[in-house]
Amino acid sequence: AMRAWVLLSAVLWCLPGVECPRSTLFNTKGFIYGQPGHPEKIYVKLHQNSPVLICMDFKLAKKEVVDPTYLWIGPNEKTLTGNNRINITKTGQLMVKDFLEPLSGLYTCTLSYKTVKAETQEEKTVKKRYDFMVFAYREPDYSYQMAVRFTTKSCIGRYNDMLFRVLKKILDNLVSDLSCHVIEPSYKCHSVEIPEHGLIHELFIAFQVNPFAPGWKGACNGSADCEDITNHNIVQARDRMEEFFRSQAYIFHHNFNKTLPAMHFVDHSFQVVRLDSCRPGFGKNEGLHSNCASCCVVCSPGTFSPDVDVTCQTCISVLIYGAKSCPTSNQQYED
């Protein structure tokens, strides 16, 4: 019952609009001290080592502690002992190596120590409990939604479709070495009335660019955190495309004495918006994880994420962290 209360209080502690510190004290050396009565929320990137969790609050750590003993309980409610993944020191410091989804959850440490009265040597045992809610997270996968406009002579005819296909091919070739490609391209032709220029026809072109072109895993070089590489590649792809359309505007402005082609890029029409997605088993939740709002945090028990959506959905029969499916389909609905 106590562990259930701690889990609930950890959820309620960070409500929308209430600032929630990632930890009470997280110094430059990567140590996190506990705080009695307040479960600390800690976010550990997938496959990285956790910070060092200290079974003591910062105030007590500055004092003399007599005969201290430390008892760590893990997310599975079993006593933790040191192994090749979990490191526990004699002074009660805990670190988890190569953090994975199932390692998420409540880590509890009970500190027992003695106070000794100098006059009588009377001893008294004191116990303090420290709770740490630890969550695996990963960076979201980036993609970009882009839009551009080109002038055209008419909304009727095959040249519009030809321009559209040629442009897609140029953009694909521009970023193919980054394992990126253009997806979901579309265009519509509209009549636009421009002050002092009258009515002209324009193609409104939209497309997405993502870093998952066929064979993209080859760019990972065996890296476990491949989103770091794919995100780096897609940002480069965005920059290249932005430069490409900027060069089109440059050509437009430096050919004003010459005859412009009937179809040309409309200056300042390039628009770009970043789209984030999370891998299955992860999602964003600004209310619950306000201090890691941009992160894809592992789905908690009672939720799951089967695809690359950005939210975990509710499923009361899920009992694990990082669930990718819901055992009972009629319990699925968005959180």
Largest sheet: 6 strands, mixed
- N-to-C series of helices and strands: HEEEHEEEEEEHEEHEEEEEE
Q: Based on DSSP secondary structure assignment, what is the total number of beta strands?
A: 17
Helix content: 10-25%
Domain Ig-like: 21-127
Subcellular location: Cytoplasmic vesicle, Secretory vesicle, Acrosome; Secreted
GO cellular component, one term: extracellular region
GO biological process, one term: sphingolipid metabolic process
In short:
With 335 residues, the chain is α+β, with helices and mostly antiparallel strands.
Characterise the protein shown here.
This protein is an alpha+beta fold and 335 residues long. The protein has helices at residues 2-13, 58-61, 159-175, 226-253; strands at residues 31-33, 40-45, 52-54, 66-73, 86-88, 93-96, 105-116, 123-138, 141-152, 181-194, 198-210, 271-277, 282-283, 296-298, 303-304, 313-314, 333-334. Strands 2, 4, 7, 8, 13 and 14 form a 6-stranded mixed beta sheet that branches. Mean pLDDT is 84; it is low at 1-28 and 330-335.
Keyphrases for this structure?
single chain, 335 residues, alpha+beta, Immunoglobulin-like, Alpha-Beta Plaits, 3 domains, 6-stranded mixed beta sheet, 4-stranded mixed beta sheet, 4 helices, 17 strands, disordered N terminus, disordered C terminus, secreted, cytoplasmic vesicle, Ig-like_dom, signal
